[in-house]
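queue> holo job accepted (zinc ion)
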Amino acid sequence: MRSEFVLLLLVGVRLTLLADQPPGRSPLVGQIVSEVSAESLRATVEKLASFKTRHTLSDTLTNTRGIGAARRWIKSEFDRYARSASNMSVQYFPTTAAPSARLPHPVKVVNVLAILRSGASDPGNGGMSGAGNPVCLLLSGHYDSRATNALDSVSEAPGADDDGTGTALVLELARVFSKHRFRTTIIFAAFAGEEQGLLGSTALAEFARENGWRVEGVLNNDIVGGILGGGGEVESTFVRVFSEAYSPTDTGSVFRQRNLLGLENDGASRTLARYIQEIGTQYVPNFNVRLVYRRDRFLRGGDHLPFHERGFPAVRFTEARENFDHQHQDVRTDSGRQYGDLPAFVNFAYCANIARINAAALATLALAPAMPAGSVIITRNLEYGTRLTWRKNSEADLAGYSVRYRETTAAAWQYTRFVEDSSVTIGVSKDDFLFGVQAVDRDGNASLMAIPGASGR
Ligand SMILES: [Zn+2]
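queue> job finished
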């Protein structure tokens, strides 16, 4: 009798523990991740390199060489995916860039976009208008390339790794995602004019800001295929994700509140980076995401910055070890050493793992319920525990909320408490921890982290 009682007790404890945990991995996200193909990435990078140069000032008329041929081919690939997906539309997004140090005369810079509309909303006007201000996600790479001299529009500049790999990753995920339905609209962007000063991405970021787009996350991939570093070391086990702490828009009361609550490490882009690391590594075994708490590498920049600087959460993916012999270099051999950004120096198995990390994070974001609104830590009274509240989500398939917390000096979330209600009391002191709340659906898709403010000071 006594042993049965103990057994019942144990079963009870086990059920309580299970009820405290969010649902596990989403089968659909697992399937999407499994559909990413290294061979498909290889074919795209080789095709892009075959245009010899994709310099912003290169030829736009022939169909075999130069940036015009490249963008028409990219559009034709997007069009091919869109033909079997009624909710995907494809368009050029042109802008005329003014002369600058890297641009001797005005030039038309043309982004190529594929927009996969959510099942729930119709953004209208091909998804490009601000009507309805739909929430959207953006996956990007840049398809322009350069040789040693930034103004050289004629020399060979195959741009296999920089950024043929990022562009191939965007095309590959557009192909895979076009076969599935999502709650959130996703824009797949092949940016132009990156090497001449982030021209294409700046134009789209400005358009998004002016039209009140609610861009929930920008995943920018730039140089994501090399495993042999310039120092001769091989590293294929992780990708770096760069994120800046504050956006220049985090001023005034936003800055003061964040500083007051110790949230200097929980800005929108940093929170997105942490999310990508958590979700990505859940679905991609034996591969890691190394977060770099910095906007970019020294002396370098990328297409995430125009978005981050306008207050949109935006991060940059870059390979673990770069090799400067194969970036921004004329194709040549010098003392037996091969220079140039050639497809031979891209490792497509590695690039595919980075694509899978992107796919897991992007699919989860696009499938998840909305981020909980109005979350606060109740700070009215001196209390030993922590009380948090937020507004209820409205999704029919909502399972509940993952309340996350970590010590104030911890880089990543440490603890999870899963609840079905829209409030919780946790038995740790609010003085010593940072908190976040995610909405989770029944398949286990978790939203971005809402970072609570303080109520009742
Ligand atoms: Zn680049």
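queue> The domain at 376-455 is CATH 2.60.40.10 (Immunoglobulin-like).
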